[in-house]
Amino acid sequence: MNRFLVRRVIQIVPQLAILLVLSFALVHLTPGETGVLDLESADAQNIAALREMLGLDRPLHEQFADWAVRLVRLDFGVSFIDGQPVMDKILERLPPTLLLTGTALALSIMLAIPLGLISALRRNTPIDYGLTLFAFIGISVPAFWAAILAIITFGVLIPVLPIQGMRTVGAPVASDVLDVAKHLILPAGILGLEGTAALTRYVRSSMIESLVEDYIRTARSKGLRERVIVVRHAMKNALLPAVTILGLRLPMLVGGAVLIEAVFAWPGIGRLGLEAVLRRDYPVVMGLVVFTGVLTILGNLLADVAYGFLDPRIKQEA
Amino acid sequence: MGVTQVGKEVRRSHTISRRTVLRGTLAIGAAALGSSVLQACGPSTAPSGVASPAGSAKGARTPSGQLVFASRVSELETLHPFQTRLARAQAVSYHINEGLTKLSPDLRIVPGLAESWKVSDDKLTYTFTLRKNVKWHDGQPFGAKDVQFTLDAAGNAASVSPAKAALQTYVAKVEAQGDSTVVITLTKPYSPLLTALADQLLILPEHILRANILDPSFAKSPVGTGPYKIKDRQLSALTLEHNADYWGDKPYTSRIILKDAPEAAAQQAGILAGEIDVAAFVPLSMPQLQAQGYPIFRGVANSVHGINLDLQSPALQDPKVRQALRAGLDRARIKQLHYTDGFLAHAVVPSGFEAYHAKELAAVPNADAAAANKLLDDAGWARGADGVRAKGGQQLRFKHYAWTAKQWQDIATIAQASWKPLGIEVEIVVTENARITDTVSGRFDAAPIGWGLTSDPIVGLDLLFRSSDKTFKDGTTRNVFRYKNTRVDSLLDEALASADQAKRAENAKQIQKIVYDDVPFIPIAYPSYELVGRKGVTLDETGKGALSSFGVGFFMTEWRAP
């Protein structure tokens, strides 16, 4: 186990290096403008500040080294647009994003595992067909479109839910927690259902695979109760691939859900990144890429370690 | 890097850079067209400051009600007048901190914190008499020391103020005399000063910022003298409350909430659901809402979109050829496709700058192939065997650049189709947006660009058309055409020195006419932008400027809740 851990941790080093090189290259390769040039835009100032920040007149490797050293000290620079420290901007928006994506993820897991199991156990029955249809709709319908439908339905036609932002503004609010929760329902619901759809299919197919394994037949022939067979034997193995899928969703957890955050005006990291890109606010873009990149790498490490615990074969291979 | 570095290279600005994104003020719809940058004020006709304070003719108002504007709150994170670079933030800042002069809603320069001013005969000394009994939002008295403090800080070496370059170039000395007189001495006459004082040099409280001009807590929640003060700040909303002690006319609406609502469809739903009172979005859904009785507010943006010509390109050196290009271009077709609610452009200065706009240029037929052919025939450009005109071995073949968005490619395609029957062969080169600056800093023949004008049109004309050997990339000029005309230069010099509005406007019109004949630029359209309100929302009609130039964010005082 320790060898596996050590090896896995060492793998982080090249991953981080690649991440830094990529985010550095990102800024060097993608300057940008629109076709409308303002007579007094901040562009030239931005370019000058960027030059200074990156020291563009010096050799590339020196620039990179300097930048990387600053990053290690958690100095992400300041935004071109408003002069605020990039780190502050990111940290300020992390809680809303974690709240949104965390709730959505939890919702996905809570719904997808039972639904997937039911689907697998009732394979080729009307229940399975119904759930499959739901999953296909969930996968095919773009989330932003579903979001707009939800807004029109629950905000305009049957106005029962707030449709924008995270808190009620301007009106006295009895309970902040309740208020935020109400604002959370639509965005987290849409995001969660989108995740549920895909995850249900994974759980279903891996459960079906498990159910035909030899050890299940053995368990049945031992005369175990169906419930024990399903829960203790089949499900335990079937959920392993689901852990992988969850690991792949970790970037979203910290990176935010760009479209959903935009539609629902949720003040999260996804919005911050999108707007920074649109305004060519490079320090923010680079900061976000590195920040979410590092958290993603760490998240994957955790997923792998968890995997190691769940499946002893992985430790042996390592 | 530090905050200060951002502004190190502030160009000759003395106009605001809110243009960067007035596509902001609410203007998602306009953003789709590119920009709707501010337009602005015709500077003062009243050097002695006799004009009445903004809106005083309307009598006393009693602020009431609440309006929720769709906004992008992430753009409002700093409201420090030195740091704001985006239209929406500058618009908000303008209601909290104020300048010595102000812009009236119909875009004149009127007294602000200075109740009057005098300009010396040599145009080098401006003496401002400050308003008395003005208080900062925290109750402290406002005085001449605040003005001196702000202008000194804005002009010093470490300044990040957008007006830094103008101050360093033109201002020799700022001197407070007693509590209520400030004398600004210039190194040479510079009339855009009064505009800069209105929209860039908003006065800051010395008693708060003495130690650190860029105090981060001030940037989040500035203290000013203006009609609104910050009441509450959240990640997705900023609440402004009217200043009960305001020296001037009170706003109509007592509370304004700038609510984060970045997405067009969601803004529309917000209007329908009553969560948002005023929003701007894509024109497509406008007719539908209008039919349902929602009020639509429409204004011309302050930018001019058109085709830029490289006067040193071999095929384009003959002015007759360029005139033929302009005459033959089917601009109405382009407008129909991409500027539906915009306005066909003839002069460089958009029609929103009423005093400066050369409207007499407008009486020209669109896509006039006969006139274009005649110009080319008369100038001796004869059609060759391949149908392409030539003269002295030079064929009328050149490149027309276009950028990634469809808008620019359609302009190029329509230009190509308009000019082909005239015997002019155009090759369209689609280039990614990232290459725009490089492209128009080199040889480019023809390229479509929308130019957002400055709040003082003279400054915009100066940036575009003053003779220069610099390229666009150098940052000090926007003369991508390599246009040189000594008459234009001297008209610009006169206008920059004169504080007489009629004189400046006259020069601006003359420049537009000269440029019209020389054709470094073929104007196509002035984009518009539109706002939709919840039923019952009104905008004071005298506040034309509230829509036409600065966008809805400016002159928030003129909007009225249902």
Summarize the model shown.
The complex is a heterodimer of chains A (318) and B (562). With 318 residues, chain A is an all-alpha fold.
Describe this structure in words.
- The complex is a heterodimer of chains A (about 325) and B (about 550).
- Chain A is mainly α and about 325 residues long.
- Chain A has one domain (about 1-315): MetI-like fold.
- Chain A has 13 helices and 1 strand.
- Chain A has helices at about 1-30, 45-55, 60-70, 85-120, 125-140, 145-155, 175-210, 215-220, 225-255, 260-265, 270-280, 280-310, 310-315; one strand at about 35-40.
- In chain A, helix 9 (about 225-255) packs antiparallel against helix 12 (about 280-310).
- The N and C termini of chain A lie close together (about 10 Å).
- Chain B is of the alpha+beta class.
- Chain B has 2 domains: about 20-260 and about 530-560, Periplasmic binding protein-like II (D-Maltodextrin-Binding Protein, domain 2); about 305-380 and about 395-525, Dipeptide-binding Protein, domain 3 (Roll), CATH 3.10.105.10.
- Chain B has 19 helices and 24 strands.
- In chain B, the strands form 8 sheets. A 4-stranded mixed β-sheet of chain B has the order 1-10-9-8, covered by helices on one side. In chain B, strands 4-5-7-6 form a 4-stranded antiparallel β-sheet.
- In chain B, a hairpin with a 5-residue loop joins strand 4 (about 115-120) and strand 5.
- In chain B, helix 12 packs antiparallel against helix 14 (about 405-420), helix 16 (about 455-465) runs antiparallel to helix 17 and helix 16 runs parallel beside helix 18 (about 500-520).
- Residues about 1-60 of chain B have low confidence and may be disordered.
- At the A-B interface, strand 1, helix 2, helix 4, helix 6 and helix 11 of A face helix 1, strand 10, helix 9, strand 20 and helix 16 of B.
